[in-house]
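Structure in, sequence out. Go:
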């Protein structure tokens, strides 16, 4: 197999005009935060119904700033899901607070809103939901709970750019919304992200947290002041230029991802015993197409066989509370059975807008032999263990 035949689980689509525009930025002499960042922010704001938006160097940075804006600090608690990229919980720890995990709904694989209220204590400051694979968390239930308990919400919408809840685009509603433009996300700036804010006053405070807390006096750094210990989270014009080249494709990317998801569902061999994701074409942006392997299949064997067949498969994500860092907070196996089951069996099949229909067919054709090998490896491990 040649390298060019390999089908990765995702790949960015960057058009030639964008590549040329990046060259222009590099030649312009202004390569870090400047006019491209301001233009990117303006276009994002227009997409989100006019809400203030600030570009950030990552969604991780956006969430760190969001927690600061919500005054989350030592002794506070933030309620979140165990099934996410570890950034979601790490930012809470870095703010000095405790991530309080609650289990997932096995249908959506997102935080189960029915379990949130029981996790609220006098120390709870915020809820940090994640739209896993681009399927939005139920915003109506989420904000009803947050409203009743006067909690802030920081939406980790890293994966849900272009998704919508009840016909309204993620980012255009709610409290603080953090979106990622990492290379693997639905639109990219290589690295980058943004934070959607409630009003201009909050956006100004966001700017302080974004860059060293430094405030100009009028137009000048002469007479500047620093009012808080901000971080270093600004986006470059080089990155913003890539993002600007992606935005016009967002709708078409989402349409294409939905088509690919439909094809996976239509042609998936249901006798293989895999658990398919929730079939949703109205709201999800199909950031990922994730199936759960049958009980007893060894995932690493499945992934290895798929790789040998020229197909990249991802694992997003092992349940976070089982990582050493979070066990140190007292979390244990068995705490969140749904998240543990999903986290131990999930695989992300190839899903990106430049995929051909025939690529889906190729993935599905490779599934049966790879699964057979994974199940055989599981059976062997069990008889081996029984014989010892
Ligand atoms: C990618 C991702 C992040 C982090 O985004 P960065 O831009 O890489 O910092 C956070 N949460 C989730 C759910 C993600 O998928």
């Amino acid at each position: 197999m040649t390298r060019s035949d390999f089908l990765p689980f995702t790949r960015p689509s960057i058009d030639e005009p964008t590549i040329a525009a990046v060259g222009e930025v590099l030649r312009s002499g202004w390569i870090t935060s400047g006019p491209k960042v301001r233009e990117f922010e303006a276009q994002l704001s227009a997409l989100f119904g006019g809400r203030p938006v600030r570009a950030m160097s990552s969604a991780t940075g956006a969430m760190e700033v969001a927690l600061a804006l919500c005054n989350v600090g030592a002794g506070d608690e933030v309620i979140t899901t165990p099934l996410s990229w570890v950034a979601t919980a790490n930012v809470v720890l870095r703010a000095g607070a405790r991530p309080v995990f609650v289990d997932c709904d096995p249908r959506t694989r997102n935080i189960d809103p029915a379990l949130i209220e029981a996790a609220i204590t006098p120390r709870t400051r915020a809820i940090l939901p994640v739209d896993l694979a681009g399927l939005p968390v139920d915003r109506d239930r989420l904000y009803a709970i947050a409203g009743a308990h006067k909690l802030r919400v920081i939406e980790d919408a890293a994966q849900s750019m272009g998704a919508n809840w009840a016909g309204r685009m993620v980012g255009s509603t709610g409290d603080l919304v953090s979106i990622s433009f990492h290379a693997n996300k639905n639109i990219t700036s290589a690295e980058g992200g943004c934070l959607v804010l409630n009003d201009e006053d909050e956006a100004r405070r966001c700017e302080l947290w974004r860059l060293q807390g430094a405030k100009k006096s009028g137009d000048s750094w002469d007479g500047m002041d620093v009012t808080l210990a901000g971080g270093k989270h600004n986006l470059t014009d080089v990155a913003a230029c890539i993002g600007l080249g992606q935005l016009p494709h967002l709708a078409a990317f989402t349409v294409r991802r939905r088509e690919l998801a439909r094809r996976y569902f239509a042609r998936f061999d249901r006798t293989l015993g895999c658990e398919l994701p929730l079939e949703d074409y109205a709201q999800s942006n199909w950031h990922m197409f994730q199936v759960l392997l049958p009980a007893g299949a060894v995932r690493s064997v499945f992934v290895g066989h798929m790789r040998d067949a020229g197909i990249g498969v991802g694992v997003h994500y092992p349940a976070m509370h089982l990582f050493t860092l979070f066990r140190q907070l007292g979390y244990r196996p068995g705490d969140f059975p749904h998240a543990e089951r999903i986290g131990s069996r999930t695989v992300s099949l190839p899903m990106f807008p430049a995929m051909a229909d025939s690529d889906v067919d190729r993935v599905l054709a490779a599934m049966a032999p790879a699964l057979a090998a994974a199940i055989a490896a599981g059976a062997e491990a069990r008889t081996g263990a029984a014989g010892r």
